[in-house]
Write a structure and sequence with these properties.
Distance between the termini: 29 Å
Strand content: 15-25%
CATH topology of the largest domain: Alpha/beta knot
Oligomer: single chain
Number of helices: 10
Helix content: 25-40%
Shape: elongated
Amino acid sequence: MSAWIWGRHPVAEALRAGTVRRILIATGREPSAVIRDIRALASEKAVPVKDVPTAEIARVAPGQNTQGVVAEIEGPRLTAVRDLLSDLGPSPLLLALDQVQDPHNLGALLRTADAAGVAGVILPERRSAPLSGVVAKTSAGAMSRLAIAEAPNLARALDEVRKRGIWTVGLDGTAQQALYDVDLTVPLLLVIGGEGEGLRRLTRERCDFLVHLPMFGHVESLNASVAGSIAMYEVVRQRVAAGLRP
């Protein structure tokens, strides 16, 4: 399985991450410094580059602002929930996303998850943004590096996680407890809800704790990817302070 990403800087980032299979570059354009860097880096990493007509670029990424370059990257590392849970360290950080349907939010969350050292991500099979080129591009290659499990039933997946001694903490704007008041150094699954609806009832019921982000301004909530990123990095902060590697 593979996906396509586009744009000069996303392709360059994916090349540095080592997830690119091949690159197509539109002919007839004045080569920019970034395109020259892409060619040099592709040569260094033995990634094939092919010059093609602009129409071929448009066929691969219709309607997108490709800046004349697209790259085929490795697809996500899909696995079963039980397999994801069978190969974890002593104090893992996992992420579950409950119906995040905007591909940009999903990609941004995967990018932060990779940066924060998340060991694996659990997505519901239905009512979640597909792991598409938009997600791959937004994630800056993280979609290909992270272990991702698609669960037919997210609530049951959370039950399985809890049986492994991993605490489940859900981010919920109606929760009484603040994120910063919970010990996040334990083996942990962080659960982030989708846009608008947030966590579903059955998902909330499977969480050991529900926490909120304190809000002091006029807005009532944050974008799912922003809230999730703040929560993941609070986990990182606590673990670094405790001398633990995220």
